[in-house]
C-alpha cells in the first residue's frame, strides 16, 4: 500500500529491462512477474505497462502453470488494466478465467460489472451490482463500484443516493463522506455538502484541504454568519498549512470583504479585526513576487480592490 | 550452590531442539490451515453498521471542537435522542450473546474454526510436553538471574535449591510459544505480504473486525453516556490569532 522508494526504483529498473520485450512473446518471465507484483503491491495504475508485459503471461500456457496461485491475481490485474486500455477481448478472456475459478466472489462480480460498463451496457452493469448487493449487502467493493458507475454516466443524483446507502452502513468512512460532499457541490446542494464536510472534519481535523473545502461551501452558501464561519475555517486552513495554502489566503481576503460589504452601515455586533486579511494580502503579494512576477500587477489591483471594501 | 549440574547433550538433541522444531512446524501448519479454512469474509451490514456508528460517535467526541456548535448538537441528537437516536435504537435492537449465537449459526461455525486452529494445536502440544518431558531440566541460561524468575523458568520443577538459570522443559515450551511470534512474522509474513493487502484493507474497513461481539448493548450505552458528557469547545475562535502569528512569521522569513 505504502509506496516505498526502493520499490519504485526497482520498478523503474524492471521496466527498463522489459521495454525491448513490449508486445513480443517470450523472454524474462521473472522480470515480468516481479514488475506486475510491484505494481499490484503499490496499487499503481500503469495499465499500459500491465497489459504490455502481462498479456503474454496469461496467454502462454507454460507460464500460467509456472505462476501458481499468483495466476489469479495476475488475471484480475490484467483484466482491469485491459479495460483501461480498451482491449475488451483480453479483459473478457481474463475475467472469464477468474470467474470460472471463483464463482460467487465479490471481486469477480465487480469485474463482470466493469466489463459491462466498458461496453456502455449501463443498465446491465447496474443490475449486476444490485443483485450482488442483495445477496451480500455488506460488500463495500460493490457499493463503491456502483457509485462510480452512476457517476461516470453523469447520473449525479443516482450516485448521491447510492453513496448515501453505502454511508448508512459504513458511517465512519471519511473518504466516502468527502466524495459525497463533492457530488453535492456539483448538484449545488450546499447544505448537504457542508454536512458531509463536517463529517470529514471530525475524522481528519489536521487536513487543511478539508478546512478549506468546508470554508468554500460556507462562503458559497452566503449570509453574514456563513461568511464569518468561512473566514474562521480559511484561517484554520492557513494555520494548519503554515501559510502555504494560497487558495485559503484568497479565501480570507474574500470573506473579509464579503462580511464588510454585508454589514455596511449596520453597526450591529463587534467589527471584525482587519489584521488577518491585511496580512493575507501581504503574504499573497510576496508569493506572487517570488514565484510569478508577471501576474503581480493584476493580483495587486484585485487585492487592493478588496482591501478598499474592508 | 555446589557443583554445576552437567546437562547431557542428548537432552539438547532430544528435548530442546525437538520442542522448538515442533512448535515452529505447528505454527506454520496453523497458518496454512487458517488460510484454507478462511471463508471470504463479508460482514453482515447490521454488524458493520453498529461498529461503524460507534466509531463515528467516537470521532465526533474526540474532535467536536472542529465543527460549529450547532452542527455538533445536531449530530449529538442524531446519536443520542431518547427515542430516535441511532445509538439508542441500536442498543434496543442489540440481542444478548446467547440469542445471537442461536440465531446465526455461521457465528458459531466461525468461532469453531478459530478455536480449531488456535486452541487445539496449543493444548495438544502442551499435553505432549507435559506428558513426555515433565520434570526435565532442558537448558541453562548463561547469565545469572534473581529468584523472581523461578516461576517463569522452572515451571514443573519444584526444587527450591536448583539454580534459577536452569530452564525446565515446560518453561521452554512457554518461551517458545511467545518467542516464535517474531520468527513467524519473518518467515510467513514476508512471503505473502503482497497478496494480503486486499485483506488488510478490508479488515480496516470493517473497523473492529466483525461487529461488537456479545457486549454490544453495553458498548452503545457507554458511547451514549460519553457523548452526552462531551462539552463542545470550539477550537476556531482563537484560530484567527494563531493564523495571524503564522502569517507574520511567514512574512518575516521571506523578507
Layout of helices and strands, plus pairs?
The complex is a heterodimer of chains A (about 300) and B (about 260).
Chain A lengths: L4 H14 L10 H14 L4 H13 L1 H7 L2 H16 L2 H14 L4 H13 L3 H14 L4 H13 L3 H14 L4 H13 L3 H14 L4 H14 L2 H17 L5 H17 L12 H17 L4 H14 L1
Helix pairs in contact in A: 1-2, 2-3, 3-5, 5-6, 5-7, 6-7, 7-8, 7-9, 8-9, 9-10, 10-11, 11-12, 12-13, 13-14, 13-15, 14-15, 15-16, 15-17, 16-17
Chain B lengths: L8 H29 L7 H18 L6 H12 L5 H8 L3 H7 L1 H28 L4 E4 L9 H4 L12 E3 H23 L1 H13 L10 H14 L9 H16 L1
Antiparallel strand pairs in B: 1-2
Helix pairs in contact in B: 1-6, 1-8, 2-10, 4-10, 5-6
Subcellular location (chain B): Membrane
GO cellular component, one term (chain B): EMC complex
Keywords (chain B): Membrane, Transmembrane, Transmembrane helix
Description:
The complex is a heterodimer of chains A (310) and B (255). Among the domains of chain A are: 46-58 and 75-99, no CATH class; 222-262 and 274-310. Helix content of chain A is 77%, strand content 0%. Chain A has helices at residues 5-18, 29-42, 47-59, 61-67, 70-85, 88-101, 106-118, 122-135, 140-152, 156-169, 174-186, 190-203, 208-221, 224-240, 246-262, 275-291, 296-309. The radius of gyration of chain A is 26 Å and the shape is elongated. Chain B has one domain (9-254). Classes of the chains: A mainly alpha (310), B mainly alpha (255).
In short:
The complex is a heterodimer of chains A (about 300) and B (about 260). Chain A is mostly helical and about 300 residues long.
What letter string, H or E per element, gives the SSE order of chain A?
A: HHHHHHHHHHHHHHHHH
The SS-based structural class of chain A is mainly alpha
Oligomer: heterodimer
Mean pLDDT of chain A: 88
Structural class of chain B: mainly alpha
What fraction of residues of chain A sit in β-strands?
A: under 5%
| Share of residues in strands of chain B | under 5%
Family (chain A): Belongs to the EMC2 family.
InterPro entries (chain A): EMC2-like, TPR-like_helical_dom_sf, TPR_EMC2, TPR_rpt
Keywords (chain A): Endoplasmic reticulum, Membrane, Repeat, TPR repeat
Subcellular location (chain A): Endoplasmic reticulum membrane
